Amino acid sequence: MSTHEVMKNSNPFPHNEFNEREFPAKEAASMSTSPNCAFAGLVNLEELLERIDHDQELLREIFGLFRREIPGLLAELRAAIEANTAKRVLSAAHALKGMLANLAVEKGSATAARIEELARAGEVNGFAAELAELEAEMAVLVASVDLYLAGSER
User: Domain coordinates of the chain in residue numbers?
Assistant: First the structure.
């Protein structure tokens, strides 16, 4: 099976849009709009809040920006991988790594860093598995951000 076929079959976001993926109701119901609960295991919230001096309004703005930008960044990474263009993969993975590191999304940032290293080394065979892992984590993070943002508007 080609890398393209593996990626196509593992894409949790049809058409690269998060809005088309349904987050499991059971998981959503168990999550709180409290950032401590909603982002458990995804974001090092303590570190992120320290960085922004515990400013809840800024936290909402940052998560809103993340929510707007992440679909395009993931789409660019997927397109670069599908085109098998190491330079584009390197650039897209680097942008994602930076964004996720700034948000204290440690696992996602590490996954993006692995993709970046694979691109730098020209090892295209590992892209599909790493991308699938990153997209799966981002699906949960996006759903968590959506729940947090919806709850923080009240």
Answer: 32-152
pLDDT tens, residue by residue, 113-146: 999 999 999 888 889 899 999 999 999 999 999 9
Residues 58, 42: Cα–Cα separation, whole Å = 19
DSSP H helices, 18-152, are 25-30, 35-38, 45-51, 56-82, 86-102, 106-121, 127-152
The CATH number fitting domain 32-152, selected from 3.40.710.10, 2.60.40.1080, 1.20.120.160, 1.10.3720.10:
1.20.120.160
Does the predicted model carry a pTM greater than 0.90? no
